[in-house]
Specification:
single chain, Glycosyl_Trfase_fam3_N_dom_sf, globular, Transferase, Pyrimidine Nucleoside Phosphorylase, Chain A, domain 3, alpha/beta, Anthranilate_Pribosyl_Tfrase, 14 helices, Glycosyl_Trfase_fam3_N_dom, 13% strand, 7 strands, 7-stranded mixed β-sheet, 2 domains, 42% helix, Pyrimidine Nucleoside Phosphorylase, Chain A, domain 2, glycosyltransferase
């Protein structure tokens, strides 16, 4: 089918828009990832698809197409963290502070990075990795190496300047063949969506309402566990653990962000322990955040 028919399916308004069939979705994604159609057509489809709203079946098919391109390298006993590719803008990364607390549990962390994607203009994991030496149990995967087709869409995505379906799909592509994963959700409906989209790829998936769309806990929040298809909701309050970190709500410079991670305050270090406790829940070493925090401490 000509690609403009896929654009018509997502971009002609409520009366004519329709869900793409599986074979159509496969063909559309192959055209986009291989850039075998004009960049203007790719941008038009991604924008229309976003406005029309992607269905879970379309996202599943997109994920399955992406899966065929990925070059994987197994990291044993690892937890994949679903960071957004538009970075962190208001607060520093906790990631480099967490890893040391997981070594006694023989746990590895897998994260992925690339050049900045829309829509937030934050410090990316790629930049973090270039400026801070990670512990040896943090395994950084550069998307230009393991999924170059999606990485090479960066220019088109930045010209468009808006979030697309790739912002959802790209967070947990599992380049390290991890058994466990933590992903972040802004809104509760995404908890079910993420479990449907990613859950089958992991022995255990935790969804957390983390800071700036990351799997990092900075303040009182919720997290969700899926046991045999039943999703349960739980709460975390850092104040219960004696943590009184003042989370920023305004943009900080990249230099300040890096300095805060390199020279953490006492409360930021305590937050690192709390995040490590969440990783113990994700890796099924505990099912209670208070117990897990005591294990870390």
């Amino acid at each position: 089918m000509a690609f403009h028919e896929y654009i018509r399916a997502v971009g002609t308004g409520p009366k004519s828009n329709r869900e793409l069939k599986e074979n159509e979705m496969i063909d559309a994604m192959e055209c986009i990832l291989n850039q075998s159609v004009y960049s203007e057509q790719i941008a038009a489809f991604l924008l229309g698809w976003r406005v029309r709203l992607e269905t879970i079946e379309e996202l599943k098919t997109t994920f399955n197409v992406c899966d065929k391109y990925i070059k994987r390298q197994t990291v044993e006993n690892s937890i994949e963290l679903g960071y957004p590719f538009d970075g962190k803008a208001d607060n520093p990364y906790i990631l480099p502070l967490v890893a040391k607390y997981l070594k006694k549990f023989d746990l590895n962390i897998v994260v992925s990075g690339d050049e900045l994607q829309p829509a937030k203009k934050g410090l990316t994991l790629k930049e973090l990795n270039a400026n801070i030496k990670f512990d040896d149990n943090i395994h950084y995967f550069d998307r230009a190496d393991y999924f170059k087709e999606l990485s090479e869409l960066t220019k088109i995505r930045n010209i468009l300047g808006l979030r697309t379906a790739f912002n959802t799909v790209e967070k947990l592509l599992n380049p390290g063949n991890s058994k466990y994963a933590i992903n972040a959700a802004f809104h509760k409906p995404y908890v079910v969506k993420y479990n449907e989209l990613f859950g089958k790829n992991y022995e255990h998936l935790v969804i957390v309402k983390g800071n700036e769309g990351t799997p990092e806990i900075f303040s009182k929040c919720k997290y969700w566990l899926n046991k045999d298809g039943v999703i349960s909701e739980h709460k975390i309050d850092p104040e219960y653990f004696g943590i009184n970190y003042n989370k920023s709500t305004t943009v900080i410079s990249k230099e300040d962000s890096l300095n805060m991670t390199k020279n953490p305050s006492n409360d930021l270090e305590k937050l690192a322990k709390l995040n490590a406790a969440m990783f113990l829940i994700a890796s099924k070493k505990s099912n209670d955040i208070k117990e897990a925090y005591e294990m870390v401490d």
